[in-house]
Amino acid sequence: MRLYSRTQVALVAALSLGLGLAGAAGLAWLSYLRGAGSAATVSVPAPVGDAPAGTRVEPLAAGGDPNGGASLVLADSLPGFSQDEQENIVVYERLNAGVVNITTEVVAINWFQEAVPKDGGSGSGSIIDARGYVLTNHHVIAGAYKIFVSLADGSRFEGTVVGSDPDNDLAVVKFEPPRGLKLTVIPYGDSSGLKVGQKVLAIGNPFGLERTMTTGIVSGLGRPVQQDDTTIIRDMIQTDASINPGNSGGPLLDARGEIIGINTMIFSLSGGSVGVGFAVPVNTAKRVVPDLIKYGAVKRGWIEAEFVQLFAPLVEYMAERGSPLPVEKGLLVSTVKAAGNAERAGIRGGATPVRYYKSVFNVGGDLIVAVDGMAVASVADLFSALEDNKPGDTVTVELYRGGKKMSVRVTLSDRADWLQAQR
Question: Can 169 be counted among the known catalytic residues?
C-alpha cells in the first residue's frame, strides 16, 4: 500500500472540487444552449405584414444569407411541433392572406338565344404588389365576362385583366384595394437553383375551400408540358404537393415562404389529387409580368414565314418524287413574307404547291431544324425556341437547303404584328 502525505491529500481534494465545479458549470451552459436551440431557425425573406405570435425576426449576420433575407426564429410559443411543422405553420400564418380566391362570370346563351351571365370557373392567385396586382393562370380568367377577387378577410372586389400570356398560362389581374387596407404581398423567389427533393408548400382554394395548404417536394425539373398544338410550356416544376381544381394560379412556395412556381395543372388518371402536379417556374413569371403590366401581352420575336411540320406522308412523297429530305423532323418553309426578316436573312420558301387533304402549301423550300440553339421538330417547338426572345433580337437559324446544312442570322420581328396580319 502506498502512503500519501497530508499535503498531497489536500491538493487532490482541491483539484477534485475544482473539476466538479467546472463540470457543473459546463452542464448548466449546455442546458442553456439546448433551451435556446429549441427555437428552430430557418432563413426566410423579410416579413410582409405582421409575423405570427411567437416569432421574432432578426437580421442575418453579414454574408449569412446569399439572398439578402432575414432569419426567422421560431420561439417556444410553438412547443410540441417539429422544426418542419414550425416552418409550415409560420409560412402559412405569414402569407396565407396573400393568396386570393378568383371567381369568374362568363356569358352563355339561353334557350331564347339571349346572352346571360353564368358562373365560370374559380382559381387562386398571389398578391405580388400592394397596389392590388395578382398573379394567376391564364386559364383561370380565360373567357371571363367578370372577375372577382376575394381576400382572406372575406372582402370581395371586382378585378380586371391587366395582361395575359397563354404561352406560359400566366395572367395578371388588378383590383383596387380601399385606402388604408394593407395587403399581404408574397415575395418572388428564384427557381433557377431548385433541387429534386426540396420541400415545397402549395396554398390555394381547392374546391372553394379557401387558403388550403398542402406540402410535398420537388419531384422533377425541366418538364415540358404541351398545352395545345402550338404551345409547350418548358421547364415546368413537377411536384407531389396536392393540386386540385381551384388551386390553379396559387403559389408554390419554398421553406422561406417565397414563390418558386405558379401551380398550374395536375395529371391524374383518376381526376383527383393523386397524380403529378406541375407549376410554371417563378423565373418565367418574373420575365413576363413586367410586359403584361406595361403592354397587356408579352413582346416576343418572330420569323416572318409560313411553316409546315414534317409528317410521314410528306417525307414519303418527297422521296417518291426524287427529292428525298435529309431529315424526317423539322419545319418546311412554305412561303416567306416579301421583304420580311426571313427573306432578308436569305431563308427561301418553296415554289411547288401541293395539297394534303384541305391544306395547300409549297414544297422545295428550306428545312429548318434548329432555332436559337434549340432543336425544332414542330411549330410548338418554334414557339418555345422564340419564347424568351424579344423583337429586335438576333437568333441563329439552322436549316437544310437540299442536302446542304447551313445557318443564317435572323433579326426578329414582333410576333403579335405577324399574327394580327394573318387574321
Answer: yes
Query: Which of 119-128, 320-329, 345-354 is the least confident region?
Result: 119-128
Q: Which of 248, 334, 378, 384 is catalytic?
A: 248
**Does 219 qualify as catalytic in the annotation?**
no
251's CB contacts (< 8 A; 6+ apart) are 95, 98, 99, 126, 186, 202, 203, 204, 259, 261, 262, 263
Higher model confidence: residue 121 or residue 411?
411
CA distance 422 to 372: 24
* pLDDT, tens digit (0-9, with 9 covering 90-100), for 217-263: 999 998 888 776 667 788 899 998 888 778 889 999 999 999 999 99
End-to-end CA distance of the chain: 112
Q: With CA atoms as reference, report the closest residue to 297 among 162, 110, 397.
A: 162
Given 169, 240, 254, 372, the catalytic residue: 169
Whether residue 146 lies inside any domain: the answer is yes
- Catalytic residue of the set 124, 138, 139, 413: 139
Same domain membership, residue 314 and residue 204? no
* 167: annotated active-site residue: no
- Write out the residue range of the structural domain in which residue 127 sits: 98-174
Give residue 159's identity as a one-letter amino acid code.
Answer: G
CB of 160 within 8 A of CB of 293?
no
Q: Are residues 312 and 418 in the same domain?
A: yes
Q: Which pLDDT tens digit goes with each residue over 36-73?
A: 443 333 333 333 334 444 433 333 233 333 333 433 44
